[in-house]
Design a protein that fits this description.
Blueprint (H helix, E strand, L loop, with lengths): L1 H15 L6 H4 L3 H21 L10 H20 L10 H13 L4 H6 L3
Length: 116
C-alpha cells in the first residue's frame, strides 16, 4: 500500500511540475494542471464514496415472512422440477413457484417488490 501511495504521489508531482525533457508539458499552465488534478482527486473520492457499504433498514415482520416463503417455495419448486437449470421462466418451475407463493399468502404485488 505504501509503495502504491508513493508511486501515485510521485506521478502527481510529475504532472504538476513541468518536465524539461518534454516541452509539451511546459505549455500547460500550472493552474490548468492543478485544476485537472483536483478534478481527478474529487472524482476518485466520489467513486470511493459510492462503493461504501450502505446500511439497510431492518426487515419488517411481513417482509421476513415473505422472504422465508420465497426461500421455501424456491426449494420446493426446484425439488419438484429436477430438470430445471436455473431459468426462472421455465414454465413448470415457475407455475409451481407461483402456486406455492400464493399458497403462502404472498401477493403478486409483493412478489414484484421482491423482484422475483
Amino acid at each position: 500500500m505504501k509503495k502504491t501511495a508513493t508511486a501515485l504521489s510521485r506521478h502527481m508531482q510529475n504532472l504538476l511540475r513541468p518536465n524539461k525533457s518534454n516541452p509539451a508539458s511546459a505549455r500547460i499552465p500550472v493552474r490548468v494542471r492543478f485544476s485537472l488534478m483536483l478534478a481527478l482527486c474529487l472524482a476518485l473520492v466520489l467513486c470511493m464514496g459510492a462503493c461504501t457499504h450502505h446500511e439497510r433498514r431492518p426487515l419488517t415482520f411481513e417482509e421476513q415472512q415473505d422472504l422465508e416463503a420465497y426461500r421455501q417455495c424456491r426449494r420446493e419448486a426446484t425439488s419438484m422440477n429436477p430438470e430445471w437449470r436455473g431459468d426462472t421462466s421455465y414454465f413448470p418451475w415457475r407455475a409451481y413457484f407461483d402456486m406455492c407463493m400464493k399458497r403462502m399468502g404472498v401477493s403478486n404485488e409483493q412478489m414484484r417488490r421482491m423482484r422475483i
